[in-house]
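Morning F.,

Quick status update on the modeling queue. The single chain you submitted on Monday has been processed. Sequence for confirmation:
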Amino acid sequence: MPYILILEDEPSIAESLVFVLQAESFTTHWESLASKALVHAKEQPVDLIIMDVGLPDMTGFEACKQLRKFSEVPVMFLTARGDELDRVVGLEIGADDYVVKPFSPREVAARVKAILKRTHVREQEVPTVAVSSPRAPTSAEFTIDHERKTIHYHQQLLQLTRFEFCLLETLLAQPGRVFSREQLLTAVGVTVDAGYDRSIDSHIKSLRAKLRSVNPAAEPIKTQRGFGYCYQPDAH
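Structure tokens below.
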């Protein structure tokens, strides 16, 4: 039975979420302070955290940053702010979904189910990496260390965010394949209708800048206008 941690300081919202999630056979635990929720997450394994952005002791964004230091549990943000910048920030620090208030508790429950299902599928599809050689050459340009979640480009370590790593890893896995924005979001485990589709462009721009700082003459991530993005080895 999945265990859901709810971090929300408004009792009426928290209680409605608890009611709907328990009706769907989820086990729930509610905290109103981020500090207490983080302690609970360390002591009690959870399957997903529903996290309000506006909290009394710290923002949900800061709480998620602290959470990511010790856990990769899926996170769904709840917020009254729906602008694109907030969505990009949430995605950058490791959110899996972003729901704007007011919302339907049943919609949240449906999104929770979708995230857990997607996470389970990803875990099943993770390839086994040999302990003796965790660093797997992807091409003459790139080397991915799947255990340490790092990517080297021309033997130089790239300083990537969690999302940038997942995005680049997806592109490198299938050279030449053109991925749409929606396919890239799905591949890195983000709900397509969470409003992040255009933010892919910002992350691609950031990735290109980091790659260009290593090799200014190369442009390995290509844009296919009207379709999406692809990795082209040794593309200039």
